[in-house]
Fold:
Amino acid sequence: MSMDHHHTSLTDQLTFPEDNRIATAFFGAGFVGIALSLIGLFVNTEQFFFSYLTSFTFIASLVLGALFFVMLQHITRSGWSVVLRRIPETMSYQLLWLGVLFIPILFGMQFLYEWTRPELIATDELIQHKQPYLNIPFFVIRNVIYFAVWAFLAYKLYSNSVKMDRQANSDLDRQQRVISAPGILVFAFTVAFASFDWLMSMDSGWFSTMFPVYYFAMSVQTVLAVVVVLVIYLLRKGMLTNTINNAHLHDLGALLFGFTVFYAYIAFSQFLLIYYANFPKEILWFYYRFEGSWIFLAYLFLIGRFVLPFVLLLGKKAKTNHKLLFGVSLWIILLQFLELYWIVMPILHQGSITFHWLDLALLLAFFGISAGLFFRQFSRHSMVPKNDPLLAESLNKH
Amino acid sequence: MSINHKTFGVLAEFANPADLMDAAAEVRDAGFKHFDTYSPFPIHGMDDAMGLKPSKLGWIVLGHGILGLLGGIALQSWAMSIAYPMHISGKPFLNFPAFVPVGFALVILLAAFGTFMGLFFLCKLPRLHQPLFNSERIVKATDDGFFLCIEAADPAFSEKKTVEFLKKIGATEIEIIPE
Structure:
């Protein structure tokens, strides 16, 4: 047995192999999805916008979760995560054009958001009272602010990190923390209000102060699952095998386990208080989501998104078992999409789960393009922030 | 008054954490089971070097946690539906969502007890006498000393050979500790 106490230099190839065609494959799937979605736009416009919002909030949760992960590593000056930080950094870089993908939603607002319909504004007194906040110009202004803030944070953190690949620079390293500290505060507010605007306002009478935390908790659990999947994919393809080791995966698995508990805690807290108080204006949101076959999805989230990962990831060995981690993570990513589907769709399809092919077409479009863009961007720079001052500490982790 | 000459073990000091870790691996490979290392701070990788198995504490905590969950649910089910059935805002007597907070709290409580008492049990605490303190040098283990002690209880222990072995693998100081 070799006792290597000073494993402090990079020995792997640091660029994504050029003969890897995964980005092309994802782009291909994405374009098929776009073509099908455009057909669907004319076949069933209302369904198109609901499916669009589901897939949009799914992809948004991944890239926003990634931005949070990156900022968290900077403000805590984490050494352990340096070797894998380029993965969430590259994911969050997509926030640059996420705002563009939001534009189509503005054209479907009369389908998605009942508070934009003139006949309801004229008759519904509650909507009239909410008009100062829930009106289209202010909605657009708010969303411009969200996307501008996120694009700024993601661009700055990513480009500083890439600049340091060329030459170590302690000023830039310090700037990462200077940006992240207020950044994480601004992130909390913007994500909270974005979740109000995108999802909660669909049911304009309903309100829950727990809802932003719920969206955030779901997102962070999922983004950790995505990072786990990507790390194991790279290792399986023989990349970074001397850089990322089981100790890094163990910590990712522990975080995934922790945020599984956090997600369940938040989701259940929101449910329990509303269920127990049983006020008509609050309970209706759950009423529609438990009605008919929708209740099966609610049980699926309880069992599949909390109990199962909790039991499977509890042991120490499980967190370094590549096959198990990979499977559980893929499952959590799938459930994240289904849970957003469960949040959005009961408004359109009351009483029972009604599958429409547009749901899959838009998921294919969003996921294909997003994954394709990720791998394209990932192959442009080193897969590891190779001049990070904490790199040696990260490499030496065991 | 008779003097007890029984030996507790052989204490060896090493120059630095890396030497101590290499020595621990040598001691493990030589087949010793009853030995321990002492250092002012935790040394990452020492568990593997010593060949330590994962602690059983996790299983003790898990058992207590499950006991807390079942106990909490059973207590509330009995109290709310058999002993004191009461209508509370039209909810059923067996209202499991409402039982979750108390069940959760009891999981935490019993798991914490399990951790605390399990650790005491596994470390054989409370312990009134530790023969290692017969050495004056061992206090350096809280400052700048890195020690390894092979105990006489080990079947492979023989005072002379063990001392020679420890010298061979790089000990800077060696001391025989009486019981």
Chain A has 16 helices and no strands. Residues 75 and 181 of chain A are 6 Å apart (CA to CA).
